[in-house]
UniProtKB/TrEMBL annotation:
Organism: Ascidiaceihabitans donghaensis
Protein name listed in UniProt: Histidine kinase
InterPro entries reported in the protein's UniProt record: DUF6446
A Pfam family per the record: DUF6446
Length: 170
């Protein structure tokens, strides 16, 4: 009887582990149909839709940080740099391996080498979360969400302060 219970316990733990892995990597993500690519203008500090093609995007309701997208654009980096708000630094977040157009390590290497430039795609797309867009010299673009200063403060327990927008309650 003891062997049966041990096998049952180990089998249940193994099954639960596989189920949790599936949920984290596949289960919560949905393909985003439609949508556009926006960058924040240096003129009025508002997001504007840019010229794009071949948009592939995924998102999940479980976290505002799970959004990832890939696209192409025919706009030059010099035009984009003059027109839209650039960022000094940006670190792409990992995407699920099955979303193969988005490789965070490759994007980070291009950002570090200067062959890609990060832009602000939207401020507070959800409370404390900004949309980041990186575009390479050859017109490949990548989008992800990252915590801004207000998000960092809100989620680590620091007092948010007046400079942060009001958090909407559901």
């Amino acid at each position: 009887m003891g062997k049966f219970l041990a096998v049952l316990l180990v089998g249940s733990a193994f099954g639960a582990g596989i189920f949790m892995y599936y949920l984290q990597v596949y289960g919560f993500y949905d393909e985003v149909v439609g949508g556009d690519v926006q960058l924040v203008s240096v003129v009025d500090d508002l997001p504007e839709t840019i010229s794009f093609d071949n948009l592939q995007a995924i998102d999940a309701d479980s976290s505002p940080l799970r959004y990832r997208a890939c696209f192409t654009t025919d706009l030059s980096l010099s035009l984009l740099s003059e027109t839209y708000v650039g960022l000094e630094t940006a670190t792409p977040r990992n995407a699920p391996e099955w979303f193969d157009c988005f490789d965070a390590a490759t994007i980070a290497a291009e950002l570090e080498a200067g062959t890609a430039i990060p832009f602000l795609g939207g401020k507070n797309v959800e409370f404390g979360v900004d949309r980041i867009v990186a575009i390479t010299e050859d017109g490949r673009g990548y989008v992800w969400h990252d915590l801004n200063d207000c998000g960092d403060k809100a989620y680590d327990g620091t007092i948010v302060g007046e400079e942060c927008p009001r958090r909407e309650t559901e």
